[in-house]
Specification:
By secondary structure, this protein is mainly alpha-helical. The protein is built from 15 helices and 5 strands.
């Protein structure tokens, strides 16, 4: 490129990829200055304008405002400082967009009502301190006074660092579920049973739901019918695991609450844990096996 060459605005447009209208706009605002004019009054631009407009185009595509762009190309402010400030602003925008995308996806998938959508939006926008208070309140309502700190830790969401869209969405749904008084009460009752059954004869006992899942898994894999004679030993083993005051069949049905399974799934997403195995099929099978024998 000839450093002494002068270009028409049309030639400048071809060299830079900008439209004639855009270059004229920049020229009128002094971002690029014509080197002179022809006898007919047409603007002519020097070779330096090609490089200047290339920088202007890059900065504009990065989202910088025109005033900031002019200050950078005129060397009034250092580009690294501008880039750092703009990157920080973009990070905020990205988080906001991620939140909006997550909530809209949840609304579409779970077919939420306007009221449920508003609640999820409010919960997703909580500050870190507000989230911690909400979690602490939930844990106190469910585990307070039961000396099950280890179990409580496995039920605690940790939305730290830079959550992705799926984690943000899971948090909002988890928080809404954790606010449900009925769910809290049902989970508290289950936790009380766990505390009561945690020791029998001085020996630790495994979680009842996990025990049912493990005992019934071979029957499910083999396609064994709950009412069959071959299922009798499995049903007997399930009954042996049940030591709580509640009758076995109502307990199996209560433990198969889809809200509890959803809670565990959301917790895994939030904390980045592997997807948990659903106990639902095993609880269904055990409940039917107990029902037909009781009948």
């Amino acid at each position: 490129m000839d450093g002494n060459a002068h270009y028409s605005i049309g030639e400048l447009a071809r060299l830079t990829g900008l439209s004639v209208k855009t270059i004229r706009y920049y020229s009128d605002r002094g971002i690029v200055t014509p080197a002179g004019r022809t006898s007919a009054g047409y603007r002519r631009y020097g070779a330096d304008c090609v490089a200047r407009l290339g920088l202007v185009r890059t900065l504009r595509e990065l989202g910088l405002g025109l005033g900031t762009v002019r200050a950078v190309v005129d060397r009034e402010v250092p580009l690294p400082e501008v880039a750092a400030a703009h990157a920080e602003a973009l990070e905020v925008q990205i988080r906001v967009l991620r939140l909006r995308q997550a909530l809209l996806a949840a609304v579409a998938e779970r077919r939420l009502t306007p009221e449920e959508t508003d609640l999820m939006h409010q919960l997703a926008r909580l500050t870190d301190d507000e989230r911690r208070r909400l979690v602490d309140d939930f844990l106190h309502a469910v585990f307070g006074g039961l000396a099950l700190d280890g179990v409580a830790r496995t039920m605690t969401p940790d939305l730290s660092g830079e959550p992705d869209a799926a984690q943000t969405r899971a948090w909002a749904e988890w928080a809404a579920l954790a606010q449900d008084p009925g769910f809290r009460a049902d989970l508290r009752e289950t936790v009380r049973e766990v505390a009561a059954e945690s020791l029998r004869g001085g020996l630790p006992r495994r979680n009842f739901t996990a025990a049912v899942r493990d005992l019934v898994a071979p029957a499910l894999a083999a396609g064994l019918a709950p009412a069959s004679r071959e299922a009798d030993p499995i049903v007997a083993a399930v009954m042996a695991e049940h030591t709580g005051p509640e009758e076995l069949l109502p307990r199996l049905r209560r433990l198969n609450d889809p809200r509890r399974e959803r809670y565990v799934h959301l917790l895994a997403v939030i904390n980045g844990w592997p997807a948990p195995e659903s106990p639902g099929p095993a609880l269904d099978w055990a409940a039917e096996a107990v029902r037909v024998r009781a009948a």
